[in-house]
Write a structure and sequence with these properties.
single chain; about 110 residues; mainly alpha; Multidrug-efflux Transporter Regulator, Chain: A, Domain 2; two-stranded antiparallel sheet; 4 helices; about 5% strand
Amino acid sequence: MMVDLGDDRALLSISVTSELTNVNPQMLRHYEQKGLLAPYRTEGGTRRYSSQDLDRIREITTLLAAGLNLAGIEQVLQLRSEKHRLQAELDRLHDQSRRSPQGQPRGKTKRGR
């Protein structure tokens, strides 16, 4: 039986995450302190990382390798997040406009005029 673990399931310890990303645990803690990373915390306070967190760490290390500092990386990540939010809003509006009758304002019908 195959179990779907999902991208957002926080299952990985800091040591496993460190090994998979080649980023030492101290730097992972530092990324969290700077607000670049927000791993899940168990009731006991243990950090647990998801595959989404692994992708974020790889993104951070790529930007560091490109010469950005952590403040610059924070700005890039915020801008990317805002871009995704705006794109989702634009997609929603496009879908909404396709569903409304042509030439009629939303929420009005011919009888309502």
